[in-house]
């Protein structure tokens, strides 16, 4: 008879199935999570379903991905408005990106993923976006185009140059800044 390779996992899961309060109390979860005494009858302990669908049709993809300096993966997102619900999507992207590129390296390299969201200048942004789910700390960098490009000055400069030379050909960088 052989012992299952995950015998300790199976044992712990079985023990926790019989009396959650006692098992969590033994593990000092109340101290670790700073939630009060597990045995306190005034505090509720609700076991959640642990069957999480891993295979799911996910028809979204990050806007742009870059490996910067062979050190960090940049997930560049473009949004026309700020929506708080997008944060969960960015978290999912970051997790999937990290997993995918770590797996591609045989788990020898774990690149940090930096999420940067670019908004047009007319979007009102919160001062910071940071999510803390205790085991996952996630923050994004937000860029308003008003902060990096002076559209009025660029338009005035290009208009002046077109008046002086109607055959003016703009560089790719100038066209992008104009948009």
Span of the ends, CA to CA: 71 Å
Helix share, percent:
25-40%
> How would you sum up the major sheet?
5 strands, mixed
Number of helices: 7
List its traits.
179 residues; alpha/beta; 5-stranded mixed beta sheet; 38% helix; elongated
Describe the structure.
This protein has helices at 7-18, 20-26, 29-33, 86-104, 145-148, 151-164, 172-178, and strands at residues 64-68, 72-78, 113-119, 129-132, 137-144. The chain has 179 residues and is of the alpha/beta class. Strand 4 (129-132) and strand 5 (137-144) form a beta hairpin. Helix 1 (7-18) packs across helix 2. The longest helix has 19 residues, at 86-104. It starts with 6 loop residues before the first helix and ends with a helix. The mean pLDDT is 76.
Briefly say what this structure is.
By secondary structure, this protein is an alpha/beta fold. It has helices spanning 7-18, 20-26, 29-33, 86-104, 145-148, 151-164, 172-178; strands at 64-68, 72-78, 113-119, 129-132, 137-144.
Record the SSE blueprint.
Layout lengths: L6 H12 L1 H7 L2 H5 L30 E5 L3 E7 L7 H19 L8 E7 L9 E4 L4 E8 H4 L2 H14 L7 H7 L1
Parallel strand pairs: 2-3, 3-5
Antiparallel strand pairs: 1-2, 4-5
Helix pairs in contact: 1-2
């Amino acid at each position: 008879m052989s012992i299952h390779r995950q015998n300790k996992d199976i044992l712990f899961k079985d023990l926790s199935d019989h009396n959650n309060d006692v098992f969590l109390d033994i593990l000092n979860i109340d101290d670790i999570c700073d939630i009060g005494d597990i045995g306190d009858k005034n505090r509720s302990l609700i076991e959640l379903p642990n069957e999480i669908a891993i295979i799911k049709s996910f028809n979204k993809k990050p806007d742009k991905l870059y490996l910067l300096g062979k050190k960090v993966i940049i997930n560049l997102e473009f949004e026309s408005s700020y929506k708080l619900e997008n944060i969960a999507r960015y978290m999912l992207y970051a997790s999937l990106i990290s997993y995918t590129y770590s797996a591609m390296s045989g788990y020898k390299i774990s690149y940090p993923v930096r999420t940067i969201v670019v908004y047009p200048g007319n979007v009102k942004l919160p001062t910071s976006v940071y999510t803390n789910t205790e085991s996952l700390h996630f923050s994004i960098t937000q860029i308003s185009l008003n902060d990096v490009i002076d559209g009025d000055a660029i338009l005035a400069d290009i208009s002046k140059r077109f008046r002086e030379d109607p055959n003016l050909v703009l560089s790719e960088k100038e066209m992008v800044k104009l948009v």
